[in-house]
Design brief:
With 369 residues, the chain is mostly helical. The protein has 2 domains: 246 residues, no CATH class; 105 residues, D-Maltodextrin-Binding Protein, domain 2 (3-Layer(aba) Sandwich), CATH 3.40.190. It is 64% helix and 6% strand. It has 14 helices and 4 strands. It has a 4-stranded mixed beta sheet with strand order 2-1-3-4, with helices on one face. Strand 1, helix 3 and strand 2 form a beta-alpha-beta unit. The radius of gyration is 31 Å and the shape is elongated.
Length: 369
Protein backbone atom coordinates (compact mmCIF):
# COMPACT_ATOMS: atom_id res chain seq x y z
CA UNK A 1 0.00 0.00 0.00
CA UNK A 2 2.82 2.40 0.89
CA UNK A 3 4.45 1.70 -2.49
CA UNK A 4 1.23 2.59 -4.34
CA UNK A 5 0.96 5.81 -2.34
CA UNK A 6 4.55 6.66 -3.21
CA UNK A 7 3.84 5.94 -6.88
CA UNK A 8 0.82 8.25 -6.72
CA UNK A 9 2.90 10.99 -5.11
CA UNK A 10 5.58 10.74 -7.83
CA UNK A 11 3.00 10.82 -10.59
CA UNK A 12 1.17 13.85 -9.19
CA UNK A 13 4.41 15.74 -8.62
CA UNK A 14 5.54 15.02 -12.18
CA UNK A 15 2.22 16.06 -13.71
CA UNK A 16 2.23 19.26 -11.67
CA UNK A 17 5.72 20.19 -12.91
CA UNK A 18 5.58 22.79 -15.71
CA UNK A 19 8.28 21.04 -17.72
CA UNK A 20 6.05 17.95 -17.97
CA UNK A 21 3.33 19.89 -19.78
CA UNK A 22 5.45 22.42 -21.66
CA UNK A 23 8.49 20.35 -22.69
CA UNK A 24 7.10 16.84 -22.89
CA UNK A 25 3.65 17.56 -24.36
CA UNK A 26 3.11 21.02 -25.84
CA UNK A 27 6.60 21.32 -27.32
CA UNK A 28 6.50 18.16 -29.51
CA UNK A 29 2.91 18.85 -30.59
CA UNK A 30 3.76 22.41 -31.60
CA UNK A 31 7.00 21.36 -33.28
CA UNK A 32 5.21 18.67 -35.28
CA UNK A 33 2.72 21.25 -36.53
CA UNK A 34 5.41 23.81 -37.39
CA UNK A 35 7.69 21.37 -39.25
CA UNK A 36 4.81 19.49 -40.84
CA UNK A 37 3.37 22.73 -42.20
CA UNK A 38 6.73 24.18 -43.25
CA UNK A 39 7.64 21.09 -45.27
CA UNK A 40 4.11 20.19 -46.37
CA UNK A 41 5.03 20.46 -50.06
CA UNK A 42 8.17 18.39 -49.67
CA UNK A 43 8.55 14.70 -48.96
CA UNK A 44 11.73 12.68 -48.90
CA UNK A 45 11.45 12.08 -52.64
CA UNK A 46 8.89 14.36 -54.26
CA UNK A 47 8.07 18.01 -54.80
CA UNK A 48 4.44 18.88 -55.39
CA UNK A 49 3.93 21.11 -58.43
CA UNK A 50 1.95 24.27 -57.68
CA UNK A 51 -1.29 25.22 -59.37
CA UNK A 52 -0.07 27.90 -61.78
CA UNK A 53 -2.13 30.71 -63.30
CA UNK A 54 -0.76 32.71 -66.23
CA UNK A 55 -2.22 35.39 -68.52
CA UNK A 56 -2.82 34.05 -72.03
CA UNK A 57 -2.75 36.09 -75.24
CA UNK A 58 -4.05 34.49 -78.47
CA UNK A 59 -6.24 34.99 -81.51
CA UNK A 60 -8.98 32.85 -79.95
CA UNK A 61 -8.81 30.23 -82.68
CA UNK A 62 -9.32 26.47 -82.41
CA UNK A 63 -5.66 25.73 -81.65
CA UNK A 64 -5.62 28.37 -78.91
CA UNK A 65 -8.78 26.93 -77.38
CA UNK A 66 -7.31 23.40 -77.38
CA UNK A 67 -4.05 24.66 -75.91
CA UNK A 68 -5.91 26.49 -73.16
CA UNK A 69 -8.37 23.71 -72.26
CA UNK A 70 -5.77 20.91 -72.24
CA UNK A 71 -3.40 22.88 -70.01
CA UNK A 72 -5.57 22.12 -66.97
CA UNK A 73 -4.29 18.54 -67.03
CA UNK A 74 -0.79 19.91 -66.35
CA UNK A 75 -1.74 22.06 -63.33
CA UNK A 76 -1.75 25.13 -65.58
CA UNK A 77 -4.58 27.62 -65.82
CA UNK A 78 -4.27 29.98 -68.78
CA UNK A 79 -6.48 33.03 -68.33
CA UNK A 80 -7.25 35.13 -71.45
CA UNK A 81 -6.24 38.76 -71.13
CA UNK A 82 -7.09 41.74 -73.29
CA UNK A 83 -4.45 43.81 -75.03
CA UNK A 84 -5.23 46.84 -72.86
CA UNK A 85 -4.90 44.84 -69.64
CA UNK A 86 -1.66 43.31 -70.94
CA UNK A 87 -0.08 46.66 -71.71
CA UNK A 88 -1.24 48.11 -68.41
CA UNK A 89 0.25 45.20 -66.45
CA UNK A 90 3.55 45.48 -68.31
CA UNK A 91 3.67 49.24 -67.72
CA UNK A 92 3.08 49.14 -63.96
CA UNK A 93 5.23 46.01 -63.41
CA UNK A 94 2.42 43.86 -61.98
CA UNK A 95 2.65 41.39 -64.88
CA UNK A 96 5.79 39.27 -64.55
CA UNK A 97 5.11 36.67 -67.25
CA UNK A 98 2.51 35.61 -69.80
CA UNK A 99 2.01 33.14 -72.65
CA UNK A 100 1.43 34.25 -76.23
CA UNK A 101 0.13 31.94 -78.98
CA UNK A 102 0.18 33.22 -82.53
CA UNK A 103 -0.58 31.46 -85.81
CA UNK A 104 2.77 29.63 -85.97
CA UNK A 105 4.55 30.52 -82.76
CA UNK A 106 4.24 29.87 -79.03
CA UNK A 107 6.09 32.34 -76.80
CA UNK A 108 6.59 32.46 -73.03
CA UNK A 109 7.38 36.02 -71.94
CA UNK A 110 9.07 35.77 -68.55
CA UNK A 111 11.79 37.39 -66.45
CA UNK A 112 12.30 34.10 -64.60
CA UNK A 113 12.95 31.62 -67.38
CA UNK A 114 14.44 29.00 -65.03
CA UNK A 115 11.63 29.17 -62.48
CA UNK A 116 9.08 26.48 -61.69
CA UNK A 117 6.23 28.12 -63.61
CA UNK A 118 8.37 28.59 -66.73
CA UNK A 119 9.47 24.96 -66.55
CA UNK A 120 5.85 23.78 -66.34
CA UNK A 121 4.87 25.88 -69.37
CA UNK A 122 7.81 24.52 -71.39
CA UNK A 123 7.03 20.91 -70.52
CA UNK A 124 3.34 21.23 -71.37
CA UNK A 125 3.98 23.26 -74.51
CA UNK A 126 6.51 20.76 -75.88
CA UNK A 127 4.04 17.92 -75.38
CA UNK A 128 1.24 19.93 -77.00
CA UNK A 129 3.37 20.89 -80.03
CA UNK A 130 4.46 17.28 -80.55
CA UNK A 131 0.84 16.13 -80.45
CA UNK A 132 -0.18 18.88 -82.87
CA UNK A 133 2.62 17.92 -85.27
CA UNK A 134 1.61 14.24 -85.10
CA UNK A 135 -1.99 15.19 -85.80
CA UNK A 136 -0.90 17.23 -88.82
CA UNK A 137 1.26 14.38 -90.12
CA UNK A 138 -1.64 11.92 -89.74
CA UNK A 139 -3.94 14.28 -91.64
CA UNK A 140 -1.45 14.72 -94.49
CA UNK A 141 -1.02 10.94 -94.67
CA UNK A 142 -4.76 10.42 -95.00
CA UNK A 143 -5.02 8.61 -91.65
CA UNK A 144 -7.68 10.49 -89.65
CA UNK A 145 -7.91 7.49 -87.30
CA UNK A 146 -4.48 8.43 -85.90
CA UNK A 147 -5.38 12.05 -85.21
CA UNK A 148 -6.95 11.42 -81.79
CA UNK A 149 -4.92 9.97 -78.89
CA UNK A 150 -5.55 6.30 -78.18
CA UNK A 151 -5.50 6.84 -74.41
CA UNK A 152 -8.60 7.80 -72.44
CA UNK A 153 -6.59 9.83 -69.89
CA UNK A 154 -3.28 11.66 -69.89
CA UNK A 155 -1.96 9.74 -66.93
CA UNK A 156 -3.24 7.87 -63.91
CA UNK A 157 -0.97 7.90 -60.87
CA UNK A 158 -0.90 4.85 -58.63
CA UNK A 159 1.39 3.99 -55.73
CA UNK A 160 3.73 1.03 -55.80
CA UNK A 161 2.81 -1.45 -53.09
CA UNK A 162 5.37 -1.47 -50.31
CA UNK A 163 7.16 1.71 -51.42
CA UNK A 164 5.13 4.39 -49.67
CA UNK A 165 6.92 7.38 -48.13
CA UNK A 166 5.70 9.53 -45.21
CA UNK A 167 4.40 13.04 -45.73
CA UNK A 168 5.95 15.87 -43.72
CA UNK A 169 3.37 15.43 -40.94
CA UNK A 170 3.80 11.65 -41.06
CA UNK A 171 7.59 11.97 -40.82
CA UNK A 172 7.68 14.44 -37.94
CA UNK A 173 4.77 12.69 -36.22
CA UNK A 174 7.24 9.85 -35.63
CA UNK A 175 10.56 11.65 -35.20
CA UNK A 176 9.25 14.30 -32.79
CA UNK A 177 7.69 11.52 -30.72
CA UNK A 178 10.97 9.61 -30.40
CA UNK A 179 12.94 12.83 -29.87
CA UNK A 180 10.81 13.96 -26.95
CA UNK A 181 10.93 10.48 -25.44
CA UNK A 182 14.70 10.74 -25.57
CA UNK A 183 14.47 14.01 -23.63
CA UNK A 184 12.51 12.01 -21.07
CA UNK A 185 15.87 11.00 -19.62
CA UNK A 186 16.09 14.54 -18.23
CA UNK A 187 12.67 14.07 -16.67
CA UNK A 188 13.93 10.90 -15.01
CA UNK A 189 16.96 12.70 -13.58
CA UNK A 190 14.69 15.44 -12.27
CA UNK A 191 12.49 12.89 -10.49
CA UNK A 192 15.50 11.18 -8.93
CA UNK A 193 16.86 14.45 -7.55
CA UNK A 194 13.62 16.12 -6.45
CA UNK A 195 13.85 14.85 -2.85
CA UNK A 196 17.06 16.79 -2.41
CA UNK A 197 15.56 19.90 -3.98
CA UNK A 198 12.50 19.57 -1.74
CA UNK A 199 14.67 18.92 1.35
CA UNK A 200 12.85 15.66 2.09
CA UNK A 201 15.76 13.27 1.47
CA UNK A 202 16.85 13.04 5.11
CA UNK A 203 13.30 12.35 6.25
CA UNK A 204 13.00 9.56 3.67
CA UNK A 205 16.28 7.99 4.78
CA UNK A 206 15.09 8.03 8.38
CA UNK A 207 11.72 6.44 7.54
CA UNK A 208 11.13 2.66 7.68
CA UNK A 209 10.49 2.66 3.93
CA UNK A 210 13.55 1.08 2.30
CA UNK A 211 15.62 3.36 0.07
CA UNK A 212 15.86 0.57 -2.50
CA UNK A 213 12.09 0.81 -2.86
CA UNK A 214 12.38 4.58 -3.33
CA UNK A 215 14.84 3.94 -6.14
CA UNK A 216 12.60 1.36 -7.83
CA UNK A 217 9.40 3.39 -7.41
CA UNK A 218 10.94 6.49 -8.92
CA UNK A 219 12.28 4.49 -11.85
CA UNK A 220 8.93 2.79 -12.45
CA UNK A 221 6.98 6.05 -12.14
CA UNK A 222 9.28 7.80 -14.61
CA UNK A 223 8.84 5.03 -17.17
CA UNK A 224 5.05 4.95 -16.77
CA UNK A 225 4.77 8.72 -17.15
CA UNK A 226 6.87 8.61 -20.34
CA UNK A 227 4.60 5.96 -21.84
CA UNK A 228 1.53 8.01 -20.91
CA UNK A 229 3.01 11.11 -22.55
CA UNK A 230 3.77 9.11 -25.70
CA UNK A 231 0.16 7.89 -25.80
CA UNK A 232 -1.17 11.46 -25.52
CA UNK A 233 1.12 12.66 -28.33
CA UNK A 234 0.21 9.78 -30.66
CA UNK A 235 -3.53 10.19 -30.07
CA UNK A 236 -3.35 13.96 -30.55
CA UNK A 237 -1.32 13.58 -33.75
CA UNK A 238 -3.82 11.07 -35.12
CA UNK A 239 -7.10 12.79 -34.26
CA UNK A 240 -6.03 16.44 -34.66
CA UNK A 241 -3.31 16.35 -37.34
CA UNK A 242 -4.69 13.29 -39.13
CA UNK A 243 -1.38 11.39 -38.94
CA UNK A 244 -1.80 7.70 -39.70
CA UNK A 245 0.05 5.12 -37.58
CA UNK A 246 -1.44 1.99 -39.22
CA UNK A 247 -2.23 0.49 -35.79
CA UNK A 248 -1.99 2.88 -32.84
CA UNK A 249 -2.01 0.10 -30.25
CA UNK A 250 0.92 -1.68 -31.87
CA UNK A 251 2.88 1.57 -32.26
CA UNK A 252 2.41 2.41 -28.59
CA UNK A 253 3.49 -1.10 -27.64
CA UNK A 254 6.65 -0.69 -29.72
CA UNK A 255 7.37 2.65 -28.02
CA UNK A 256 7.53 0.97 -24.60
CA UNK A 257 11.10 -0.42 -25.11
CA UNK A 258 12.29 3.09 -25.98
CA UNK A 259 10.66 4.49 -22.83
CA UNK A 260 12.37 1.77 -20.77
CA UNK A 261 15.70 2.52 -22.46
CA UNK A 262 15.40 6.26 -21.84
CA UNK A 263 14.46 5.74 -18.20
CA UNK A 264 17.41 3.39 -17.62
CA UNK A 265 19.73 5.87 -19.33
CA UNK A 266 18.56 8.68 -17.05
CA UNK A 267 18.91 6.53 -13.94
CA UNK A 268 22.44 5.44 -14.88
CA UNK A 269 23.52 8.98 -15.74
CA UNK A 270 22.34 10.23 -12.35
CA UNK A 271 24.11 7.43 -10.49
CA UNK A 272 27.38 8.06 -12.34
CA UNK A 273 27.48 11.88 -12.32
CA UNK A 274 25.94 12.22 -8.81
CA UNK A 275 24.54 15.70 -9.57
CA UNK A 276 21.46 16.69 -11.60
CA UNK A 277 23.27 19.48 -13.44
CA UNK A 278 26.14 17.30 -14.65
CA UNK A 279 23.83 14.45 -15.67
CA UNK A 280 21.54 16.84 -17.54
CA UNK A 281 24.40 18.35 -19.56
CA UNK A 282 25.61 14.90 -20.57
CA UNK A 283 22.11 13.73 -21.52
CA UNK A 284 21.40 16.88 -23.55
CA UNK A 285 24.53 16.36 -25.64
CA UNK A 286 23.84 12.65 -26.06
CA UNK A 287 20.22 13.30 -27.06
CA UNK A 288 21.17 15.79 -29.78
CA UNK A 289 23.73 13.37 -31.21
CA UNK A 290 21.42 10.34 -31.20
CA UNK A 291 18.46 12.25 -32.66
CA UNK A 292 20.68 13.66 -35.42
CA UNK A 293 22.08 10.24 -36.31
CA UNK A 294 18.55 8.86 -36.23
CA UNK A 295 17.29 11.32 -38.85
CA UNK A 296 15.11 13.22 -36.39
CA UNK A 297 15.88 16.73 -37.58
CA UNK A 298 15.53 16.36 -41.36
CA UNK A 299 13.32 14.42 -43.74
CA UNK A 300 15.18 11.50 -45.29
CA UNK A 301 13.96 8.81 -47.66
CA UNK A 302 13.50 5.37 -46.13
CA UNK A 303 15.69 3.96 -48.90
CA UNK A 304 18.54 6.45 -48.44
CA UNK A 305 21.75 4.44 -47.93
CA UNK A 306 23.44 7.16 -45.84
CA UNK A 307 20.43 7.33 -43.53
CA UNK A 308 20.42 3.54 -43.19
CA UNK A 309 24.11 3.59 -42.21
CA UNK A 310 23.79 6.38 -39.65
CA UNK A 311 20.76 4.85 -37.94
CA UNK A 312 22.82 1.77 -37.07
CA UNK A 313 24.67 3.91 -34.50
CA UNK A 314 21.57 5.41 -32.87
CA UNK A 315 18.86 3.73 -30.79
CA UNK A 316 16.57 6.56 -31.91
CA UNK A 317 17.41 5.62 -35.50
CA UNK A 318 16.50 1.99 -34.83
CA UNK A 319 13.06 3.04 -33.62
CA UNK A 320 12.50 5.65 -36.34
CA UNK A 321 13.41 3.20 -39.10
CA UNK A 322 11.38 0.46 -37.49
CA UNK A 323 8.26 2.60 -37.09
CA UNK A 324 8.52 4.01 -40.61
CA UNK A 325 8.87 0.57 -42.14
CA UNK A 326 5.94 -0.73 -40.12
CA UNK A 327 3.64 2.23 -40.81
CA UNK A 328 4.47 2.74 -44.50
CA UNK A 329 5.76 -0.65 -45.63
CA UNK A 330 3.85 -3.00 -43.31
CA UNK A 331 7.02 -4.70 -42.04
CA UNK A 332 7.11 -5.53 -38.32
CA UNK A 333 10.54 -7.16 -38.15
CA UNK A 334 12.67 -3.95 -37.95
CA UNK A 335 10.71 -2.44 -35.05
CA UNK A 336 10.53 -5.76 -33.18
CA UNK A 337 14.29 -6.22 -33.51
CA UNK A 338 14.82 -2.62 -32.37
CA UNK A 339 12.70 -3.35 -29.28
CA UNK A 340 14.77 -6.42 -28.42
CA UNK A 341 18.04 -4.46 -28.67
CA UNK A 342 16.66 -1.59 -26.60
CA UNK A 343 15.41 -3.89 -23.84
CA UNK A 344 18.82 -5.60 -23.73
CA UNK A 345 20.63 -2.28 -23.37
CA UNK A 346 18.06 -1.11 -20.81
CA UNK A 347 18.60 -4.17 -18.64
CA UNK A 348 22.37 -3.71 -18.69
CA UNK A 349 22.16 -0.01 -17.79
CA UNK A 350 19.59 -0.53 -15.04
CA UNK A 351 21.54 -3.36 -13.42
CA UNK A 352 24.69 -1.25 -13.43
CA UNK A 353 22.83 1.72 -11.93
CA UNK A 354 21.19 -0.46 -9.28
CA UNK A 355 24.56 -1.97 -8.37
CA UNK A 356 26.02 1.51 -7.88
CA UNK A 357 23.02 2.37 -5.74
CA UNK A 358 23.32 -0.72 -3.53
CA UNK A 359 27.06 -0.31 -3.13
CA UNK A 360 26.77 3.21 -1.78
CA UNK A 361 23.26 3.39 -0.40
CA UNK A 362 23.01 6.42 1.85
CA UNK A 363 25.51 8.46 -0.16
CA UNK A 364 24.77 11.06 -2.82
CA UNK A 365 24.29 8.31 -5.41
CA UNK A 366 21.01 7.30 -3.78
CA UNK A 367 17.91 8.17 -5.75
CA UNK A 368 16.54 10.40 -3.03
CA UNK A 369 20.02 11.91 -2.47
Amino acid sequence: MRTLQFLKKEGLQSLAAPETVLLMLLFPLLLTWVLGTAFSNISARTLDLPETRLPFVSDGGMVAQLYQSNSRNSSLTLEPITEDALQSGLADGSLKQYVELTDKELILHSDDQKGMEAMMVRMYSNAFIQQANLTGAALNAGRPDLMAPAFSEYIRIEGIDGRAEPSSFGYYGVTMLTMILMYGSLQTVSMLSQEKAGRTSLRLKASPYAMSKVFLVKTLASCFILISQAAIIVLFNHFVYGIQYRNIGFVLLMVVPLAVFVTSLGVLAYQIFRKEEAASVFLNILTIALVFLGGGYMMVSLDDSTFATLTQFSPIGWVNQGLFRYIYRGSQEPILWAGVKLLGLSLAMFLLAFRLFLREEGSDRVAAD
